[in-house]
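The methods section describes the discrete structure representation at length, but only in general terms. An entry of this sort, consisting of the sequence and the corresponding backbone structure tokens, reads as follows.
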Amino acid sequence: MTVQIKYKNNLLNKNTANLVYFADDKFNISSLKKQISSTEFSFISDLIKTKDIKREILTFDISSKRKIVLVSLKKNITSSDAENLGASFFDKFKDLKQNDFGINSDTISNRSKNILAYFLHGLKLKSYLFDKYKTKKDKKNMQITVTGKNKPNLKDQIKFKAIEDGTFFTRDLVSEPGNILHPDEYAKRLNLLRKDGLKIDILDEKKLKKLGMNTLLGVGQGSIRGSYLVTMEWNGLKDKSKPLAFVGKGVCFDTGGISLKPAKFMEDMTYDMAGSAVVVGLMKSLALRKAKVNAVGVVGLVENMPGGNAQRPGDIVKSYSGKTVEILNTDAEGRLVLADALTYTEEKFKPKFIVDLATLTGAIIVSLGSEYAGLFSNNDKLSNQLIKAGENVEEKVWRMPLNKNFDKLIDSKNADMQNINYVGGAGSTTAAQFLQRFILNKTPWAHLDIAGMAFSKYGGALNSGGATGYGVRLLNKLIEDNYE
């Protein structure tokens, strides 16, 4: 379903199919006397006494083709509350035949002035549907006309649309099947982001070999597809201040390689590029809303296949950093992609901080389920900023430990380190500990393990199942609140 939102300065036509008004948490409707006819006001006043006012949305059928909808705003409503309310509104009315709504923003008190922007944002986020490969598509539209003095200002309209476009782009990328979005196609799509104002640089296998990015290349060498490192730069400041850096794991399909995964649920491994998709969606959002910040996104794009040229367990490879890695399990591949990407990002861009995102370990799902992403960091300030931003947009993170005592679990007898802990336990932590070894200059760094957050089979507050786009709004909020 497509949701179209229009903003008008003039008042709503009283004959609009469905009129939407806002009330307080007790459904006091005295403010509606000027908005509707006296007959309708009396009708609603009488019926509201029989309704369950514990609900947040009440509907009144004025005729077979017309409804009046009352939306309750509680006294201390937060932006997340408003987003969830908007999502509930979409769910309630998405199947309605008469799907034209007029929202009167004058019924929102000044204290809640910006709440409507978040309400509409939640509604839009919930409306996403990936039906690209359906022969019969849902062609229904929900049209919303917003009038009144308290409608979102132009700046907010642009900002929220940019975040929605970035989030939807992330969801689109994660939803694509592996036969369509392989590394070659992915790199082509990223090149198209130049039109949004991003500076794109694509390093192919020839360039990566010359640079010595052997841990990244080793993952993809069993595939007939290419391997790439793609950088996306957004320069929103006139000065040449250090950028904020975001790095993503882009394993377009993960069979496990020679350490082959079980067949059951392997189809889910199309989502193993979700970390990179978050970085891409974020960079698109920053460009679309002309964010006043310098930022760079870096993604490593590979396909992990068990081909005749595939990397073997027991192989030893030299990373871009110069450190050597013994490959004990080819299914611990994401950390190998990120290892070269992290060192390259730190060395080339010298950023203020680096945040990497990856569907890195199943162990983090055992720890945190689908409620929190795992946060590992060498910096308390950056950690606290991420935690707060996550709470504000309900894309939560939980800080997990890093400690030098974990290093012995990934030390190798034959190389500088091994890519997996075979002793047992601390699977997510040892993976993060591995990544930390490739931050060479003490740059503030945070690793987000989003394995439990990138995809939902059951849907969530702001998504209807499938790719969630988790991380785009979180990182946008981090930037907006602390670095703009």
